[in-house]
Design goal:
single chain; 230 residues; alpha+beta; Sortase, Chain: A; 8-stranded mixed β-sheet; 27% strand
């Protein structure tokens, strides 16, 4: 009888230890799953604050325009066009970049996205931290130009394009820049191999917004979203 009692006590202790370990692992799992969500919520609050601040101060930039057909290299997307800045050196056309303010804001109501982006020359224009404007982009007020934006997708809190996969042809995106809100409709969505260069297929007679991110559930591909100004 005494032996059976000791065995029962030992089993109960083992069960208690297993239950304790299991509860601890569940707790760690919940914290891990919630961490990215909490970081994303914090980042979203800061982003909204910056958007509000940016709306109170316009940040002009030098005029840009397409001048020739040539690929954009250095592992950046290409739409077979290159862009130059026509910098005016007169005192009336000197511009200073305020890196604490967004240059523009991308908004896609269907997926609840509202995110600012910085000037190309800003140290904050980095895909590891924000929606990034690609070198060679033109801004929405450039006729027949192409604003190219990139961002991560996935589960990380910096995956600002995580839900682009829900978009379809005909869906709407908005870009607010220089006090004006520009409406774009998506006209094409296609995948390309992830090899460091992205070919952008668009109508050169249309002012375009191009968004690029990794393809959902396929690490070997990137998805390109082409939207045209309405």
């Amino acid at each position: 009888m005494r032996m059976l009692s000791q065995q029962r006590v030992t089993k109960r202790i083992k069960k208690s230890h297993l239950l304790l370990c299991g509860s601890f692992l569940v707790f760690i799992g919940v914290i891990s799953l919630s961490w990215n969500y909490l970081l994303r919520m914090r980042d979203e609050v800061f982003s909204r604050m910056k958007i509000d601040m940016s709306s109170q101060e316009v940040l002009p930039v030098p005029e840009q325009k397409v001048i020739s057909d040539a690929p954009i290299a250095n592992n950046l997307p290409t739409d077979n066009s290159t862009v130059t800045n026509n910098d005016n050196t007169s005192n009336n056309n000197q511009y200073s970049v305020n890196y604490d303010k967004y240059l523009g804001v991308l908004e896609i109501p269907k997926i609840g996205l509202k995110r600012g982006f910085y000037n190309i020359d800003s140290k904050y224009n980095n895909i590891q931290y924000n929606v990034s404007m690609v070198k060679g982009s033109t801004l929405p007020d450039v006729i027949n130009g192409n604003l190219i934006l990139m961002a991560h997708s996935g589960d990380a809190y910096i995956s600002y394009f995580a839900y682009l996969y829900k978009l379809q042809v005909g869906d709407t995106a908005y870009v607010t820049y220089n006090g004006n809100k520009y409406q774009y409709n998506i006209v094409n969505i296609y995948d390309v191999e992830k090899n460091g260069v992205v070919r952008i297929i668009r109508n050169y007679d249309k002012t375009t917004l191009t968004m690029i991110t990794c393809t959902k559930d396929n690490d070997a591909l990137q998805t390109v979203y082409i939207a045209e100004l309405v």
